[in-house]
Amino acid sequence: MGRILVRIAIIVAAFSLVIFVSTKIKNKIDDDKWENNIALTAFNDNKETYNGNFLRTGFEVKENNITSNMNIFLENKKVEIQNKILSVNNRYYISAEDIARNFNMKLKTYDNEIHFYKEDNSLNNNGEKDIIIDCKNDTYKISGENDLRNSPLKVNNNFYISLVDIADIFNLRAKWNYETKEIKLYEDRGKLSREPKRQRQKKPALIRFEDVAAGEVYTSSDSLQKMRIIADFMYSQRAPFHVAWIPRYKNPKEGIDNDLLKVNSMANADFIYTLDYMIKKGAIIGLHGYTHQYGEEQSIANAEFGDYASLQETESRVKAAINTAKELNIPYEFFESPHYKSTEAQQKIFEKYFNYMFEPQKGVFNTKPILSKRNNRTVYVPAPLGYVHDNDVDDMIKRIKAKGKDSIGAFFYHPTKEFESITLSKNNDDYPDYEYSSSSMLHKMIKCLKDEGYAPVKIHDIKLLK
């Protein structure tokens, strides 16, 4: 009897050892596959833009929604506006009637559709006869179907379309001038070329543009034009990118509180236009705090959470950031604590509102994506490659090449560093041209990622099992 029990014990131990070894091997295989799985998900996701479209039709016009002291030009010819330009949350809208008149097109409107067409069957600038806008699904169709960035507004049975969507539909490039209160639109002569197709790679990379707010350098029309040029470059490379947006810029010592829900200005409208433009080019927007400051300190330079804010105030600020994004119709996909300064208790609050945190989890300090054990839903995505210190892009390239298997290829970059590589110019007819150096830091980093077999992905391509 004793021998039988010993044999049974040996068999059980051997079986347990087999299970243990098999599990270890499986976990090792899974560990080796995690990067490939993310890259594969990204490769199979063909949707390039992600819209919120919180604003719907049936908008009630108020007196402060009418913009009367601004002029728009199309190929240097002043646009004839008969139905007024509307400004809604720092976003400009032009009536479908005025659009048809100035583009020499005919107009038909239905309950949920807008049709622009050429009566003489000639082709419009896009090489097609008709433009059909589906107001119910927020799309437009020329040769193929595309997303609108904003829902058209319906006012007194007249549809209004946002300026960024007009520029997209008619392939226009915009130049803003705050001093003269003019926006000049030109048919885009850049002929933006794209990589033939997205290459399937095994290693994912995430790129985040840091500290973007309607303050400091981003109050300049030239700076915002350069941001749109950077977005064009990323689009041409089929490289989705993330934007860490600070919804409200404050500098109390200078008396500045630029709340985009309250301060209506042409500079703020240009900023919102640029966010919209970047989203159309593949940007994934995230909330980088609410003000990125606390008390009398200045936005961007100082933290917001950590030891500064109580838990109650933390939640209040998160809700304010979300409310600003929703009111402005800016879709958001992640949250990032300013300077990564937050406590475990504060991160627990963030998890209530966000599926993705673009930062390491406190107490874990992970170098690859992990799922929060608190709610089994929120994914913490770190950026272990850090950021470009000063202008030392060579150091970042070394870090990309030396990345280990247990960390994700994610980094962040302050896009203002790229501005020095972009030279703005004007042609004889004032067309807003530019030169963008192919030896810029961003160009070098994108090339390095390609050479090393990385595929830029969106943060929501990261799917972790519970």
Structural notes for this entry:
With 466 residues, the protein is α/β, with parallel strands linked by helices. The protein is 29% helix and 24% strand. It has helices spanning 2-44, 96-102, 163-169, 221-236, 266-280, 311-327, 344-351, 393-401, 441-451, and strands at 66-67, 71-74, 77-78, 85-87, 92-95, 106-109, 113-117, 130-134, 139-141, 145-147, 153-155, 158-162, 172-177, 182-187, 203-213, 241-246, 248-251, 256-259, 283-287, 334-335, 356-357, 370-371, 379-380, 409-413, 422-426, 432-436, 454-456. Strand 19, helix 6 and strand 20 form a beta-alpha-beta unit. Helix 4 (221-236) runs parallel beside helix 5 (266-280) and helix 6 (311-327) runs parallel beside helix 7 (344-351). The chain is globular and about 65 Å long.
Q: What is the chains' assembly state?
A: single chain
The total count of helices amounts to 9
Uncertain segments: 16-30, 122-128
Helix share, percent: 25-40%
Strand coverage percent: 15-25%
CATH class category label of the largest domain = Alpha Beta
| Shape verdict | globular
Major sheet characteristics: 6 strands, parallel
Q: Would you identify the CATH H-level superfamily of the largest domain?
A: Glycoside hydrolase/deacetylase
Name given to the CATH architecture of the largest domain: Alpha-Beta Barrel
Query: Span from first to last CA?
Result: 46 Å
Gyration radius over CA: 25 Å
- Secondary structure class reads alpha/beta
Query: What is the CATH topology assignment of the largest domain?
Result: TIM Barrel
Number of strands: 27
Average pLDDT across residues?
A: 88
Q: How many structural domains can be distinguished in the coordinates?
A: 2
